[in-house]
Amino acid sequence: ERKRVARELHDQVGQSLTALLMELAAIKTLVPVELEHVRDLLTRCHQLAAEMLEELRRLMMNLRPALLDDLGLIAAIKSYAEHQLPPAGVEPTVEVHGPRRRLPSPIDIAVYRIVQEGITNIVKHAGAKRATIRIVYNTDRVALTIEDDGKGFDTSKPHHSHGALGLLGMQERVTLLGGSFRVESRPGNGTRVLVEVPVPRKEESSDGQNSHSAGG
Questions:
Q1: pTM score, two decimals?
Q2: The domain over range 71-215 is classified in CATH as 3.30.565.10
Q3: Angstrom distance (rounded) from CA 207 to CA 214
Q4: What pLDDT score does 159 carry?
Q5: Smallest Cα–Cα separation from 94: which of 127, 57, 124, 119?
Q6: Which residues lie below 8 Å from residue 204, measured CB to CB, with a gap of 6+?
Q7: Is 8 left (phi over 0), alpha (psi -120 to 50) or beta?
Q8: What gap in Å lies between CA 207 and CA 37, rounded to an integer?
Q9: Residue ranges of domains in the chain
């Protein structure tokens, strides 16, 4: 049901908003410069439509992504990393340690979304050459590390620009699951995001494969 809703939001509302943005941009080019109030109105309408599209994308992200069902968590993370990082000049590595477990859906989704946001921050802000995503399965928790060799930032500054909203969103997801979230970074020394989320022990273990690495 969630996949169906996400697909309909993308195919119907998302495409309509995208078309509206294009139309507004085209109309603005036809309005004479001297009609400044009309151009300002079109600009505000364009901004509003863009905000609506961004909110729609956020809502869609909160639905379970199809890749998790099609590929599973690890393969979905690897696929996303290999599609997003190399075009930005970043070499990805995905490591998995410990006996893999079938995670509850909320944890599955949260880990995937945190990785997505971490990769987005690396692409937009890090200026990195290499990035590593490391997942460790333990008996009662799963640990996630996302690190890069980029320019880093001063974590003591409360309003830094290094993907502040993205980091807050990641932290909120972890907090809702009763986990821990920490960011380690210094200017010129890259960034490391460390996440631990508790996992109910009743979840069954899957295959006995202990680790897997994939370089970009």
A1: 0.66
A2: yes
A3: 18
A4: 47
A5: 119
A6: 101, 102
A7: alpha
A8: 64
A9: 2-61, 71-215
Write the DSSP assignment of the chain as a string of letters: -HHHHHHHIIIIIIHHHHHHHHHHHHHHHHS-TT-HHHHHHHHHHHHHHHHHHHHHHHHHHTSPPHHHHHH-HHHHHHHHHHHHSGGGT-EEEEEEES--B---HHHHHHHHHHHHHHHHHIIIII--SEEEEEEEE-SSEEEEEEEE-S----TT-TT--SSHHHHHHHHHHHHHTT-EEEEEE-TTS-EEEEEEEE--TTSPB------EEEE-
Instruction: Evaluate whether 206 touches 100 at the Cβ level (below 8 Å).
Output: yes
pLDDT tens digits along 115-127: 999 998 999 888 9
Lookup result for tokens 């930005």: 88
**Between 214 and 81, whose confidence is greater?**
81
pLDDT at 79: 93
Q: Give the pLDDT confidence score for residue 8 in this predicted structure.
A: 67
Partners of 180 in the β-ladder: 196
Average pLDDT, the chain: 84
Range in 147-151, 180-184, 211-215 the model is least confident about: 211-215
Per residue in 185-214, is it b (16+ CB within 10 Å) or e — as a string?
beeeebbbbebbbebeeeeeeeeeeeeeeb
